[in-house]
């Protein structure tokens, strides 16, 4: 699989370079020096790919994910614009040959697309990944207890704290923005880390500053179990998961592992239910909704479940849960309004979805994984307010 990916990337790098060189560079300059300089970025990137292929062990790639992400950004910054330029230029050739249209309009269109795409990549990597967005959402429920009318919940998800190494200031800003909302409750819907509990080093004190009247509650996401890291043994992997539990406890977070807690306000109460990761294959399935719900029958139920596909797979058909909060999708860290590559995989990938009066809210996540990049699918802090009665 790795060999196939590397081969595809190498072809995507080499073919557009040869085309652009033959069609444009040789016509723009007679200087051998400038012609050779054109290939320097691609030679460096191809060398990087070769080094990763031949010498990049799994442990190397996993432990240096931060730098790998930036290599990927630089790679795509040079490769994707050239690839699109080549495609647009090739689309113009039949019109030029058959209809004698000039090549210039297609060349200019290609240059415009190159500039736009390059700008998106640079913006998303430099600014977009820390462009925190507070989304205010109301959820109306006719059976919400009166005392919880106007109850303010902040949802965070998919922090992927290992990706923030060296940028503690940004995480502090996010925490400050959450606390400024003065929520009644803070919930975290999974993927606190990429692989290891030790990623919290340098961030634990920052995340422990999150405060809400009724506390901070969390669940596990697929990354939190460490399935994408090559552990020396299953024992080491289990030890890492225990350490993640312990660290969250030290931060003042309360974990809901297939369990629930009853939240009280005046003489009223609601149930906050949390399941371990319950994803569609190949993602891990550790959730036990029946166990988590026991003792909450007849109450207004709020469910935390990392993967939004759980809503249709089990929650709607096998429970009366009014509202589920999820994350996981990231919107694939790229969106144009209501359109994203994520929509081809997840029917519910961002925002609020309703079935009658029952709802699912999908948070786009605060962090990033793989590419240090976000565009359109900005890092999200959700402020969800519970409202008594039906939506107007």
TrEMBL record:
<dbReference type="InterPro" id="IPR004843">
    <property type="entry name" value="Calcineurin-like_PHP"/>
</dbReference>
<keyword id="KW-0472">Membrane</keyword>
<feature type="transmembrane region" description="Helical">
    <location>
        <begin position="7"/>
        <end position="26"/>
    </location>
</feature>
<dbReference type="GO" id="GO:0009245">
    <property type="term" value="P:lipid A biosynthetic process"/>
</dbReference>
<feature type="transmembrane region" description="Helical">
    <location>
        <begin position="67"/>
        <end position="93"/>
    </location>
</feature>
<keyword id="KW-0378">Hydrolase</keyword>
<protein>
    <submittedName>
        <fullName>Putative phosphoesterase</fullName>
    </submittedName>
</protein>
<dbReference type="InterPro" id="IPR051158">
    <property type="entry name" value="Metallophosphoesterase_sf"/>
</dbReference>
<keyword id="KW-0812">Transmembrane</keyword>
<dbReference type="GO" id="GO:0046872">
    <property type="term" value="F:metal ion binding"/>
</dbReference>
<dbReference type="GO" id="GO:0008758">
    <property type="term" value="F:UDP-2,3-diacylglucosamine hydrolase activity"/>
</dbReference>
<dbReference type="InterPro" id="IPR029052">
    <property type="entry name" value="Metallo-depent_PP-like"/>
</dbReference>
<dbReference type="GO" id="GO:0016020">
    <property type="term" value="C:membrane"/>
</dbReference>
<feature type="transmembrane region" description="Helical">
    <location>
        <begin position="32"/>
        <end position="55"/>
    </location>
</feature>
<keyword id="KW-0479">Metal-binding</keyword>
<feature type="transmembrane region" description="Helical">
    <location>
        <begin position="105"/>
        <end position="126"/>
    </location>
</feature>
<keyword id="KW-1133">Transmembrane helix</keyword>
<feature type="domain" description="Calcineurin-like phosphoesterase">
    <location>
        <begin position="152"/>
        <end position="331"/>
    </location>
</feature>
<dbReference type="Pfam" id="PF00149">
    <property type="entry name" value="Metallophos"/>
</dbReference>
């Amino acid at each position: 699989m790795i060999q196939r990916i590397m081969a595809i990337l190498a072809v995507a790098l080499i073919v557009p370079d040869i085309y652009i060189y033959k069609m444009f560079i040789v016509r723009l300059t007679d200087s051998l020096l400038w012609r050779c300089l054109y290939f320097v970025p691609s030679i460096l990137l191809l060398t990087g790919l070769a080094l990763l292929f031949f010498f990049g062990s799994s442990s190397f790639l996993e432990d240096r994910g931060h730098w790998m992400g930036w290599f990927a950004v630089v790679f795509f910054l040079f490769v994707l614009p050239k690839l699109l330029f080549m495609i647009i230029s090739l689309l113009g050739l039949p019109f030029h040959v058959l209809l004698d249209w000039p090549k210039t309009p297609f060349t200019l269109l290609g240059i415009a697309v190159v500039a736009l795409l390059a700008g998106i990549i640079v913006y998303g990597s430099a600014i977009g990944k820390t462009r925190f967005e507070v989304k205010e959402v109301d959820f109306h429920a006719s059976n919400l207890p009166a005392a919880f009318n106007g109850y303010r919940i902040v949802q965070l998800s998919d922090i992927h704290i290992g990706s923030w190494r060296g940028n503690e200031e940004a995480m502090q800003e996010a925490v400050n923005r959450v606390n400024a909302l003065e929520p009644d409750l803070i919930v975290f819907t999974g993927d606190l880390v990429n692989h290891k509990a030790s990623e919290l080093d340098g961030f634990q004190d920052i995340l422990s500053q999150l405060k809400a009247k009724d506390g901070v509650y969390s669940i596990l996401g697929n990354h939190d179990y460490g399935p994408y890291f090559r552990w020396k043994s299953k024992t080491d992997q289990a030890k890492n998961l225990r350490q993640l539990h312990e660290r969250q406890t030290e931060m003042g977070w309360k974990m809901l592992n297939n369990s629930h807690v009853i939240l009280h306000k005046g003489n009223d109460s609601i149930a906050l239910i949390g399941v371990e990761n319950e994803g569609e294959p190949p993602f891990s399935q550790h959730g036990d909704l029946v166990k988590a719900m026991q003792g909450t029958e007849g109450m207004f139920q709020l469910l935390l479940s990392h993967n939004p596909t759980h809503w249709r797979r089990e929650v709607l058909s096998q429970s009366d849960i009014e509202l589920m909060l999820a994350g996981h999708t990231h919107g694939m860290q790229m969106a144009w309004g209501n359109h994203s590559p994520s929509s081809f995989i997840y029917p519910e990938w961002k925002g609020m979805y309703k079935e009658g009066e029952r709802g699912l809210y999908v948070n786009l996540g605060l962090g990033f994984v793989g590419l240090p990049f976000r565009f359109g699918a900005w890092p999200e802090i959700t402020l969800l307010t519970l409202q008594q009665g039906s939506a107007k």
